[in-house]
């Protein structure tokens, strides 16, 4: 009787182990297939771009002008892709702090292409609209800057930011915590359809 129970336990253990190995292999195979698909898509896009550029000097000028002066419309690609295939970009910001509200400021004035908001020192800054983080780094005149391309197509710059908690190409919801101001100034630039908008105008 004891041997029979022991044999059953061993068989059950072997079966579970076999299923675990099979599931692990299946997951690895799926990851490998996704990786290969991404590489192939990248190669296809590169080849199409190369053919387009090589076909004429005019195309080369157009390509340079668009690629180097305009930001890529990530949200448009994302929305189109999701209509056809489902989620394009995994929402990796599930652990990011989200809170309601608008930007609170004491004063606002024109500054370069946007506006300078006088806020409390080290104010928490949240995202004005859901979108994709397309830039994190230094911008002349704005200091450390986070740029989010919103679902509505507006590029929003948050300048003079420190302790940034979002990462490049994160998809973040509206009111997601981005970081905090270095001091009592937040630089804000809102660009939509090649026009610069005021914060109050965009908010309404």
Provide a descriptive summary of the structure in words.
The radius of gyration is 24 Å and the shape is flat. By secondary structure, the protein is α+β, with helices and mostly antiparallel strands. The protein is built from 4 helices and 11 strands, in the order αααβββββββββββα. It has helices at residues 2-55, 57-69, 74-85, 199-203; strands at 107-111, 114-118, 124-126, 131-139, 143-150, 155-159, 161-162, 171-172, 177-181, 185-192, 195-197.
What are the main properties of this structure?
204 residues, alpha+beta, Glucose Permease (Domain IIA), 2 domains, 8-stranded antiparallel beta sheet, 41% helix
Mean pLDDT: 75
Strand content: 25-35%
Overall morphology:
flat
Question: In this structure, how is the largest beta sheet organized?
Answer: 8 strands, antiparallel
Brief overview, please?
It contains 4 helices and 11 strands. The protein has 204 residues and is an alpha+beta fold.
Describe the protein's topology.
Elements lengths: L1 H54 L1 H13 L4 H12 L21 E5 L2 E5 L5 E3 L4 E9 L3 E8 L4 E5 L1 E2 L8 E2 L4 E5 L3 E8 L2 E3 L1 H5 L1
Antiparallel strand pairs: 1-2, 2-10, 3-9, 4-5, 4-8, 5-6, 6-10, 7-9, 10-11
Helix pairs in contact: 1-2
């Amino acid at each position: 009787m004891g041997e029979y129970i022991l044999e059953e336990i061993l068989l059950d253990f072997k079966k579970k182990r076999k299923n675990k190995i099979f599931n692990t292999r299946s997951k690895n195979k799926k990851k490998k297939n996704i990786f290969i698909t991404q590489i192939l898509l990248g190669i296809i896009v590169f080849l199409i771009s190369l053919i387009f550029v090589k076909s004429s000097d005019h195309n080369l000028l157009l390509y340079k002008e668009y690629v180097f002066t305009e930001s890529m419309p990530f949200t448009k690609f994302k929305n189109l892709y999701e209509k056809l295939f489902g989620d394009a970009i995994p929402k990796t910001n599930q652990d990011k702090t989200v809170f309601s509200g608008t930007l609170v400021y004491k004063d606002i004035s024109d500054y370069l292409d946007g506006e300078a908001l006088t806020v409390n020192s080290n104010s928490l800054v949240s995202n004005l609209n859901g979108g994709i983080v397309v830039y994190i780094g230094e911008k002349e005149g704005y200091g450390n800057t986070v740029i989010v391309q919103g679902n509505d197509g507006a590029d929003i710059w948050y300048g003079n930011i420190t302790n940034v908690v979002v990462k490049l190409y994160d998809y973040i919801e509206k009111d997601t915590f981005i970081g905090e101001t270095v001091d009592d100034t937040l630089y804000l630039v809102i660009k939509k359809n090649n026009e610069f908008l005021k914060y109050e105008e965009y908010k309404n």
